Structure formats: structure tokens, C-alpha cells
Amino acid sequence: MNKIPDFVAVDLETTGLEFEKDEIIEVALVRFEGGVPGESIDFLVKPTEAVLRPFIEKLTGISVADLESADDFASIAGKICSFIGDLPLVAHNAAFDSKFLKQSLSKVGINYDSHMFWDSLTLSRIAYQDVANHRLDTLTQALNIERCRAHRALPDADACGRLFVMCYEKISKMDPWLLDAFMRVSKNSDWEKLFGTPSDAAVSEAVFALPEVSPETEALPKTMAPRVSEFFKEGGFLSMFMEGFAERPNQLDFSTCVERNMHKGGLCVLEAATGSGKTLAYLIAAANKAVSGERVVISTATRALQEQLLNNDIPQVAKLYNGFLKPAVLKGRDNYLCLRKFNSILNSPQNLLLDEERDSFMALIPWAMSTQSGDINECNSFSVGRNKVLWLKLSSNASSCDGEKCPYYSKCPALCAKRRAASANLVLVNHSLFLADLALDFALLPAYEHIVFDEAHHLPEITNQSFGRHISFFNFRNVAKTLVPSRGNQDGLLAEIRSRIPDDHSSLRDECEQLVMDLSETEKALHRFFMKIGKKLTKLKVGKSGFVYKSGILGDYDVDPRSVSDQYELARVRADGLMTALASVSGLAGLLKDLKGRFEELNRFIADFDFVVKAGREDWVFYLEEPFNPHTIKMNALPLHGYAPWKEKFYPWIKSATFTSATLAVQGDLSYFVRRMGMNSLTGGKRPFVRAFPEEKILDDRRHVMVAKFMPKPTVPEYNDQVNEVLKAVLPEVEENTMVLFTSVVSMLKAQAVLAPVFAEKNKLLLCQHVDGALDGLISMFRQSRGACLLGCQSLWEGVDFPGDALKLLVIAKLPFPNPSDPLVAGLAAEMKTRNENAFKDYFMPEAYMEMRQGLGRLIRTETDSGKVLILDSRIVNEHYGKTFSRIWDFKHKTAYSVDQIKSFV
Q1: At 56, is the secondary structure helix, strand, or coil?
Q2: Which 8-state DSSP code applies to residue 395?
Q3: Which residue among 194, 243, 271, 511 sits deepest, i.e. has the most Cβ atoms within 10 Å of its Cβ?
Q4: DSSP bridge pairs for 810
Q5: pLDDT per residue over 174-232, tens digit each?
Q6: CA–CA distance, 276 with 248 (Å, rounded to integer)
Q7: Which residues, in sequence order, are bridge partners of residue 893?
Q8: Which residues contact 520 (CB under 8 A, 6 or more apart)?
């Protein structure tokens, strides 16, 4: 890398994010020569058909009136091309800008498909690995890049170009080995002109910074710890060693319950409100037991809580134990990088990487060389969700592991994490890993005596999902894509294996090609199978209830799945034969291990496929989702009761288990959670200790509730329209941040359509989940705004914090009862009916009650938070069961008989 080449930075503003229907409304170009910005042009563009959405208008400051007098794109296309000339274009997230620009130019007869684009996003991910995220807003602030305003094309294009120059200069000073790696990966791509052409010399061995971790042979450290009362009492250890520690009501009692459960053994279910100090309470009891020589596991549902424990709470507590507390975190194996696979791709990127994977892989290279853990969640430059196929090629798994034969055995991130856990006395995991360990008969976690489940209210649902079976077209295709060539290319794992087979084994090369054909035919058979299901359902004209099947796909829909299984069997047998035949060929061991691992994944897919299509089990529910498109159809099988493996494998042997959360009880009663987890019918008369610690009454002084009595029942057709009319009349006048929680996406989108024009007219910010971009970005923008409104559903009912002024008014549009048409919900209700049980009272009400508590928890997160709650579901005051929900706020609510009263309240 020498002098930075000249380029043109480009930024677009558009009416939205959908290429098919949205259009460009602003184009800005800045020419950079020698790394210095020079001439620029900026055009507003009048869209031909697309409508400027209020959110975009608010975000950019571009109004409909501004665009009325602007030229259309056809009038400025020539000027844009003339300004760019032959220079490469640079954009931030170039996949978006390049596609929009090329598509718009194509519509006016200009082919720009071969024009060179470089992405400042890719370079920033390579150069600045420590930045929290790589949005342009974040980078300009972190790197002090001047920008007069955000979300306008000209300042964004200028900032993008300056960022590109800074990244280039930093990368050019990196270690020569890294630069050579970038050259090899970028060969035959647009990046080759920037990074240069690699030499033909062999790649020198990668030197990873990962520390070696030896298997632990010594026993766990052991000492006696004081009782928890010595920590929490006035003048106790916590007040002496933890700055700002203050006693909280019930905290010592909570910790004592955990301590007693661990000492006596058994099961314990404890509820304590958010902000009550329960995390520290169970952590002290767990640490005391851990340093006494008995390993304790702490399991959480969310990454946020796990990181809080790992980075804040546990380090603070560990100081109290003079080195005797040995904590470690252990994640699922597929969270860790496989060094052998990484090195294999680095040596053969042309065959083992798809063209669209190169940018992401280049961003991984500096991290892979510098990481101390190999945990991909620590890499801010890489998204597993957006790079599923690539991470499948790179992640560690047992089926493709060489074990002690691997040259990286002593540094293997997955095995090192397991070794650290084996030498720790306090191990932090998540619920998914715990359940995977349970499913594999405890093969993943080190042996332990005690476990604490925080966020335990998630366990019933996560258990169902973990022990269920899920099939989709892309489950198969994502694995197959790593094996077979992409369209028009000779790449993929099988192509790499074929290229290394010696000339005197030409028949094995033919077998590689035939295996590619077998896998392609299997994929086609799966696609045809899903298409037939969609056509059959269309012909039957069934509603959602028709997506549930009991006798199997063949029995219920007359669609035979055997063509998929039979075609795959041909591929599996050929693959087994090929791997056996190639075992003696030198230089293929690692690639054959990868091939074996991929086929084990495909074998699991087919096993799940056979289970799901056959159905026929009374204690399971089998159903389809989105069945009319072969690419989106999902086939699911869920156990009606996920507690079976708990009762069979876990409860009988565990010394102690503590389940805790802020929302486990229904009206102070924990028996519903106990039943959901199968703890109500244990052998030997074993019963859990249960206790719900009351919320502080002071909360009622900080949270004010109003219920709209005048609203119609949610069951009547006009209900949603009435909700939207109330929201339209009330919310635009609210000066503080408001969040509205819905129980369905459809209702939320209808509300957004009604509210958007009114908010635009008031020049106020309205954000909507599933409409205005990624959820993380919406939450961040909402927290930073004042007088904004956020519409949300599902994931926004829990797990999101809006402290202080970030949220002052919470609107609940409808009580969050489970959807009766959901297959699992319907299955449970039907089963309860056969037992003469009241499904509404014993299932729907408890579920809605706990979800309601979760939703209300978004408003009050800290001791200083306060706000108002508006509930638009009149059943709270008009139905007898409404009193159950009113107990959440101790019946201290106001009743609204008109919209005017709501306006006065908010």
C-alpha cells in the first residue's frame, strides 16, 4: 500500500430502505485527490413515484416542498457520471449506496454495474476494531471527524471520504503479514487495486496472540467463607470494600434463602423486583459456596446480564475473597473461532470464500491475530447474524475438531474456554448452553454441585425451543453453500478438495463433482417439497389452524417427503466413500475434517426433517409457518411440556438449584412457574422452597396509572381503529418520550400509518419497530431524543432499559394475552380442556399477568425513575378478572371516561 489513490466519496438519501419501491431524494459527491477533499456537487432529487415518509423527512430535514422544485434523477444522471469519471466510488455501507445508484442509473439507460466501489465501512472494521459499532455517526464522533450535520448527503459524503483516508493511512502502517493477508483475500476483487497484488510466495504461518491454557490437574481452591449476614449487615464486608454500597430491604433475606438452599440442598424459587439488589444477593451466596470447594454455575438468559455479571458484579465481589474465587465464562462452542479453519481459508481464499464474504473476512483478520479469547462476541467488526454462512466455515465444533492432533490444540479458543471453566469454581453460562448440556447428558459443562438461574422466567420458552425441532430451506442451504460452488464460479470446500487431489486419482475428482450434483439435487428436492406444501395449502384454502398437522405431512397434506431423504442418502453414501478413499492422500486431513463436520450437520438436518414430517406424537405440536413460499416456510415440532428433561435428568441429581427473576409470580403466588417447570410433581415428595419478596411501596409514588374505561372490548372489529384515534388525539401533544406497546405487528403497523402524518405535521419524531430500521438503532435514537414516540411489540416488552427521561409515558394498547391461534398455545389449551381444566384461568391469565409486569418494568428501572402508564384495554375495569392486573399497581389507578381526561393525565 503506497500513496492513497484518488476517489469520489458518495452518499445518498432515499425515501426508504427498500430497493424495489424506494427512490433517491439526494445525491452528494466529493472528489478526493491525494487524500484531500476537493470539488463537490450535491443534488436534491424529485422522486417519480415513491412517497417521502415522515420518518425520513424528520431524519434528514428534507421536506416534500424541497423536492417539488428539484430535478428528477434522469435530469442529473449525466452530471453525476461526468463528475465521477473513471474514479472509484467510496461509500459507507457501499452495498446500499451502490445498489441504489446502479439501479437508478440503469433505469435511465446507464450501465454502471462494472464501476469500482470501495466501502469505508469495511476499512473502518479493519482499522478501528475497538469502536463500539461502525455506524458513520459513531465513527465521526469517536475519530473527531468534522461533520456539520448528520443524515444529509453532502456532509455524510465528506465524512465518509475523510474516514476512508484515515482508515487507509492506519492500515498501511500495519504489520506486513496483515497487509499480505489482505492482498491475498482481495485478489480478483475491487479491493485488489487498493491493497495491491500478492506475491506467489507461500503464506507464512500465522502467529496468534491467544495464550496457551493447560488442562487443570489441581483441585479447586478451598477456604471457609463467613455467612452472608457478615457481608450485608451495617458495617459488613460489602460496606467496607464496595464503594456506594447501601443496605436494601429484603436483600439479606434473599441472600440467606440462597445460602440456606445451597447448604441444605434442594430447589428454590425466589422473586425479587428490579432494583432490589438480588444479583449481588445471590452472587455473595454463590461465591461463598464456590470458595468452599463446591463449583457453582450461574446461568442467565440475556447477553446484557451476562456481561454485567462478568465485567462489573463478579470482579467487584472477587476482591473480597483474596484470590480464592476463580470465575470463568463458558459459551456454546460455536461462539469460538477455529484457528485451523481460519488458517485454511487464509491459505485458499479464492476457493473457500464467496465473493460477498471477503469484506467480512478481512475485518476478522486483525481480530483473529490479536484476540485473547477467540470469542466472536467480543469482535465489534463482525456480525454473526449477517454472516451466518461465513461463520459456519470458521466456528469451532466437535465434529470437525482434530483434538490433540491439531497444531493449535494448546491455543484452541473453545478448548481453552473449557479448560478455564474446569479450573474455575464459579462458572457463568447462558440458559441455551445449560440446556444443550442437559440434552447431551452433561457433556459440555464441568461437573458442578449448585446452579443459580437468573432471568428464570425465560426458561419455559427457551426449554421448548431448545428441545424442539425446526426445519427451513436455509437450514440446509447455508451448510450446502459452504460445500458446492456458487453460481458461475468454481469455489467451495469440494472444489478446494478436488483441486488438491493428485492427477493419478482422477476418478476421485469425478466423485467430487458427482457429490456436488447430489447435494444440488437434494436442495432442489427440498425446494420442490416445500413448493408442493404451499400449493396444497392454497388449494385447500385453510386458515392458520390448517398449518397444524398431526398425522404427518404425507397423511395431512398428501405431500411425500421421501424424495428429499432418498436424494440426500445418495449424497451421504457418496461422501462417506469419498472421505474414506481420500484419507490416505496427503495435505487433505484438515479439509476432510471440515467435510465430515459439514455432513454431520446435514445428517442432523435430515434426522430433524424425518422427525418433523412424520409427526404423530400426542405430546408434541407440529406446525408450519409462512408455508406459501419455499424460501420462507418453516416446519416446527415443539414439546407441549418442556419440563420432561428437567424431571428426568436434572432435578434428581442436582445438589441445589435456585431460580430467580423479577417476574415469576402471579399475584404473589409462584405455583404457576413451579408447574411450568415440572417442580410440582417430583418423585419422593420433593418440593421447592418458594418466596416472592414484595416490591417497595415507594414505587406507587413514582408510577401513575390510568385506565381508559370508555374503550370498546378488544374483541369488537372497531377496537383497533378506536385505539388509533385515541393515540392520534393524545400522543402528538405529549412533550416527553412515549413508548406504545402492542401485542401484534399488524396493529402496530396500522397505528404507525395513522400517526405518521400527524407527527410529521408537528415536526416530531415517530419511530416504529419493523419500519424504521434495526431495533438497536431505533432504541439508541429514542434514548437520545425528547418528545419522541416509539411504537413496539414483542422484543420491546422486556429486556430494554430507558432510564431517567428516556421514557416518561408508557402506553399499553391491549392486555398481552397469549395468541390463541399460536399452535403451541392452542395445543396446551386443548390438552387442558381434556383434563377439565380452565385454560383461561390457569394458562392465559398467568401468562398475560407476567408479560404485563415485564412491560410495565420498562418504565421504572432505577431508584430515581418515574413516569405514567396509560392502558387502553377497558377489561381492566370492566371485567371481573381485571382486578388481577390491577393488583400489580395495588389498585392505585385513575379511570378515564373520555379522551379529554387522558389528555389531562398525560
Answers
A1: helix
A2: B
A3: 271
A4: 739, 869
A5: 999 999 999 999 999 999 999 998 877 777 788 899 999 887 767 777 888 899 999 99
A6: 7
A7: 705
A8: 480, 484
